[in-house]
Structures are given as C-alpha cells and as structure tokens.
Design goal:
This protein is α/β, with parallel strands linked by helices. Helix content is 44%, strand content 16%. The chain has 20 helices and 14 strands.
Amino acid sequence: MYLALSHVTAPVFSRIQRKALKAGKEDPARMAERWGVADRPRPNGPVVWFHAASVGETQSILPLVAALLEARQDVTVLITSTTRTSAALLADTLPPRVIHQMAPYDTVKASRAFLQYWQPDVAIWIESELWPRMLREAGARAIPRLYLNARVSRRTARLWARFSGSARTVLSNLDMINVQEAATFDALSAIGVSGPNVVLTGSLKKDRPPLGCDAKELTRLRAAIGDRPVWCAASTHAGEEDIALAAHQSHAGLLILVPRHPDRAGAIADLCLSVGFKAVRRSSGDTIRPDTRVYIADTMGELGLWYRLASVSFVGGSLVHVGGHNPYEAAQLGSAILHGPEVTNFAGIYDELDQVGAAKTVLDAVTLGDAATLDDAAHRDMAAAATKVLSHGTGATDAALKAILQYLD
C-alpha cells in the first residue's frame, strides 16, 4: 500500500515542505534538493551515499567517513539529512571529497531523480531512518543497500512484532545490517530477519572521539565562572526548561542551559526572568558575571565546551515525550549524566549506564535538583563508571568500514 501511494504522495510532501518553510525549518535555497534536484555536479569515480536523518546521526558517521576516505582515495561520500540544523553543522565539519544534500522525499519521482543523478555505488542508511520507496528504487538499480548502526525504539519493536510481515518485507531489501544493541538484534530475530548479514557490532557513537572545543574559549569561560559549581541542562525541549529552572533554585552555582532548538532562546530568557534568575545569552555575546545564574548557550556545535565545564549534566528530551538524546558525548567528557524516564531512543545505553551507577534517572524538579547538587566526588564516581561502559563494545566503525569496502570491490 505504501509503495502504491508513493506514486501520488507528492502533494502531501509539498504541503509538509511549505509548513516547514513557514516555521523556519526548511532552507528556501535548498528546497529543490528534497525533490532530487542537485545543486552541484556528480564527481567522477565511486560515490558512497550515507543517509543520516538529523544531527546525532550525521555526527556519528564522521569518523567512519574519514576512515573510508583514507581507505579509498577514489571515493566521494554523499551525505543526506533531513534537518536544517544538521545541514548547518555539516557545513562547518565536512572534509574534502564529501558532499551534503538534503534528503529527497520518499516519492517515486524524487527517489528516481536522486538516484539517476548521483548513481551511488553503495547506499547506506543510518540508525532508524528507512524509506521503503527509496529502498525499492535502489534495489531496482542493483545498488548494494546497507543498514548501519541499526537501532529501533521499544515502540518500533512492538510495531514490528505486530506487523511482522510488512517489517520483514522492508528489511529484506537490505544486503547488510549492522546492529548497535542487543534489543534491536532481538527485535530483528523475532520477525525472522537474521543470518550472516545481520551482525551485532555495537554503536558507532562509542567509537566517536570526544567533542572538541576552543581551548582559549574554555579557559576564558572558566575564569569568568570562577570557583562556582556548574551544571548543565543539554538538548532541552519545551517543558524541560521549567523543570531545570525549578531544580536550580536549590543549586548555588551556575546553570548552563542548552536548548535543543536555539531559536527558542528568547522565550527561555523570559522564563528565567519570570522565576527570578538573571540570565545571559551566548549568541548575544553576553559575559558571565558573578550574579549570572543561568547561561543560555543558544549556539550550535559547542556542546564540547558545556560538558567540559559542567561536573554533571541533565540530557534532555527525557522528561518530555521525545525519547531522549545521546548520552555518549557527556560521558566521554567526564560529565556525570542525569536523565528522565523517556529514553526510548537510546534505551540500550541508558540501561547500561543506569545499572552500574554511571547515570541517574530523575523524575521532576525535586529529584533533578537533588541529583545536580550532589558533591563533586559523587559526580566523579558516576563519570568514571560511564567511561568504563563506553570502553566496552567498541569496534563498530571497523566493522562498518569492512562491510562498505566489500561492496565497493
């Protein structure tokens, strides 16, 4: 039914695009890319195409992309994503021989136009973003199709079990599946997707090096903060800032508040004032002063700074129905991890962290405030335990590279 409808769903996607443009989530200069119309020539030689939906997925593949480019000097990498934020971040980090395009909509015409133009030698989907029409069209062109760092939420696993025939049909279009966690591997096995081409490899995010930062800026910020304790609320969504600010009432130091969507910073600044906190915004160039209680970090690509400054960090999207965000980055930089119960997007790694005391679940402002105000020794113990968790199960990048190269040979 989906494949049949994909012949006539262009008007639906057009409406989605118009709404995204109105909301500022679509770049007007790149709208044609969503319909398979490229903005640059296809390079000569092999092209390996990665589709990685948003910020977390696109950033997770960069070490793999670098390894592939080193292994094959004749290869160009094409990365597609669906969000304007991911495109902006990639623009600042892409090495030579890597091209970014906005992902085409999953219609017959857009999929065919994209594949006809780019003619990828290998097509790779990352984590949980699979589009049936594009899978079918790539198969019709005999393009090897790989699903790397595969991960599904518990909700998706239940849907797979309920509609096992449909799920199995979609997933059977793939030539190789590298799975990042046991729960996803079990969900695949339960619907009959198994065999030598379905491999549990661990997560690409465990292999990713720690987030970088500007060392001079880190020194400057530390001097501005002084000896005050610092905690961070990262990748927060509407509703979570209220909880973080209520929790901060019991904290004597500085809260670094990093909204998932920086365009919400104005509303967050108003919220801070309404509850009696003096807040400053990074995007405005405001300086942290002794009376600053909240620093709103409304810029992109600087989490490496905030996790280095904070002894403990709440990772957002987990006290609202979002499903949680990536805890790896905080753990790699020695910031103890707090999170809410809504972590279905990263259930496997949060379970690992929770079981060894490397992360702590909070439920509301009271429990968040209590956890954020633990002494530094407790936070250091949590961070050390998280480091041990991350040291196990690495090697996903090597496994993924091996899989890609075998289909290029």
